[in-house]
Amino acid sequence: MTNRPPTVAGRVALLIRAGLIAGLVITGLSYPFAALAGMGVKAGAEALENMPEQLTELPPAQTTYVYAGDGKTLLTMFYEEHRKHIALKDMSPYVIKAIVASEDSRFYEHNGVDAKGVARAFVANQKAGGVSQGASTLTMQYVRMALRDSARTPQEALEATEQTAARKLREMRLAIEVEQRLSKEEILERYLNAAYYGHRAYGIFAASQIFFSKAPRDLTLTEAALVAGLVKAPSAYDPATKNQKAALERRNYVIDQMLKNNAITAEQAASAKKSKIKLKLSTPPNGCISVAPKHNDWGFFCDYFINWWREQPAFGRTPVEREERLRRGGYRVVTSIDPRIQRYAMGHVLEKERRSSAIAHGQVVVQPGTGRVLSMAVNRTYSLDQEKNGRHSDWRQDDDVKGNYPNTVNPLLGGGDMAGYQAGSTFKIFTMLAALEEGLPLSTSFYSPQRFVTRYITAPGPATCGIYWCPKNSSASMTGTQNMWTGFGKSVNTYFVQLEQRVGAEKAVRMAERLGLRWRTDIDRKLATKEHASGWGAFTLGVSDATPVEMANVFATLAAEGRHCEPMPVLSIRNPDGSHALHQDRLIAEPRCRQEIKVNVARAATDAARCVTGYGSARGGCGGWGTSSMVYGTLGRPVAGKSGTTDGNKTAWFSGYTPQLAAAAFVADPDNPEHLVGVGRSTMSKYTVAQTLRDALRGQPREDFKPPTDKYVW
């Protein structure tokens, strides 16, 4: 008869029958194998034969690192278990020697199960009347970690760690299997990257960072011995406690074992044991609330990034699944935030409105042609602590109700569930684009009186004439015949109400949707429906809410000559292995753009928007002035845009753009929309945008806008 090699389970069974595995250490007691769960030797061997042969492994959770647009400055990290896989060659040799000496001195001699070690442990435990020695090899410990990290359900996690005979036998069989397909070095590398060292540090990289603020390759002998000693009982030997006696004794035990294992010399051991424990503790950031204090203003961008991530189907079926992937996936994310532009933007925001003000002043900068969000600045501190916040600005609130200033985590600039702010006359851009798309040229003229009675029926109010809506202009000087150049440049309400009637209010609403606006309040959602949009006459005057991200991106679309891109907070996303993260064979971080409006429609709208800023139109007259002529005077290069205020100066906006950059700034009270910002703040957003674009583009070549063809002019 031909002798065939026994199966993996068979090899363990032979060890059992030979008496080499005479007992197992389980739940604090020593059991002869024949007594386990009522099984005899034969039954135990048969049970092993029937166990699955393969260890199913899932990648363990790893930390996701998020960087600024320079790819170097760490914005924050996301993790449930702080862990980063590194190669064995990137670890100090002392780490490897220490873990082998302390946990499995015969590691290089056994095949996954150390029969001599098991027998020795059984005898020692019998004499001690309890557990004095363990018998788990490094390979068996690694198997346990792999089963734990691969658990898909609580029951699987329990089975991977529960103290039972069946679990121990399973570890033995799988350990032998692992040794058949992995080298000793591979097992060590996986072990050291999976072990738990306390303080939420999983793996040697995290342990080195948390306890010593250094890379694993730089660990000294004493440091390596200290962290190696932690895997036995991280809490019991925690060196970060006031009483370091247990940690010191455990470290010195590891050093003694290294000497016994001939891993170090007697001189090295003696010197190392004399050393005191010296820690350089650090707490790795976790989430947006942990953004470094010097970059606290990046917290609002970080929050926007998370909300964007939660919407990406590539990372899971639900927002919860997607955020779990962020915290476990080990990605390397380079975001789109530009530290230089952010610094300029934040400086100009804060010099106009302090953080301690109930009035919020914020700005978003977007790159045309990609949709990448380069800056999100607001006069707030990103913090959950509202203990010292000012009183709520709504006088109807109780005296003890705090306002969201200076500390808040509310998404004031977009990306969350806040509706935004009424954007005023900036919404005239949607009516003009709809009209141009319908074939009405820039020269389309209407006599625009101070007050205009519309055909739109509305409820009685200050801007109504009986049952009709009758808006008026902000100045009597606007009375007269206007076209798109003068009507947009001077922001003539009665011109745009007539233009909206000519093209249809619903087309203006749909244009806004096409360019990225979303309706977040009940009234906006209702009025935007097919049944009501055609009667939404006030839409052109900006009675709907919008966010700064949305409005910056609308004008970025014009800067890109009608090419609309989704707002994008990332430049690249890489998997733990360095490959680019994909979804349906496309880079997840790739700009998502489409030609939403015709090139010459966008050029025509820009030609009119030049009248606003004082730069002047290429194809028509601006009527002598514009609402924001200081913008060109401040920026000093081709620029277009639109200002917007609401009734009583409740909000004040400006959205501006050059061919290279687009920005939108606002002034409002997020806590109390009825709180007036005041006439004195009406130009604040204009200067903030102009100054930020000026500084951001310093050193960049001057680029001009291209004029539209005659079809869209006359």
From TrEMBL:
Domain Penicillin-binding protein transpeptidase residues, every copy: 364-662
GO BP term (any one): cell wall organization
Catalyzed reactions per annotation: [GlcNAc-(1->4)-Mur2Ac(oyl-L-Ala-gamma-D-Glu-L-Lys-D-Ala-D-Ala)](n)-di-trans,octa-cis-undecaprenyl diphosphate + beta-D-GlcNAc-(1->4)-Mur2Ac(oyl-L-Ala-gamma-D-Glu-L-Lys-D-Ala-D-Ala)-di-trans,octa-cis-undecaprenyl diphosphate = [GlcNAc-(1->4)-Mur2Ac(oyl-L-Ala-gamma-D-Glu-L-Lys-D-Ala-D-Ala)](n+1)-di-trans,octa-cis-undecaprenyl diphosphate + di-trans,octa-cis-undecaprenyl diphosphate + H(+); Preferential cleavage: (Ac)2-L-Lys-D-Ala-|-D-Ala. Also transpeptidation of peptidyl-alanyl moieties that are N-acyl substituents of D-alanine
The protein's name in its UniProt record: Membrane peptidoglycan carboxypeptidase
Membrane-spanning ranges: 12-33
Similarity comment: family membership: In the C-terminal section; belongs to the transpeptidase family.
Start and end residues of each Glycosyl transferase family domain: 75-258
A GO cellular component entry from the record: outer membrane-bounded periplasmic space
Keyword Cell membrane listed: no
Record keywords: Carboxypeptidase, Cell shape, Cell wall biogenesis/degradation, Glycosyltransferase, Hydrolase, Membrane, Multifunctional enzyme, Peptidoglycan synthesis, Protease, Transferase, Transmembrane, Transmembrane helix
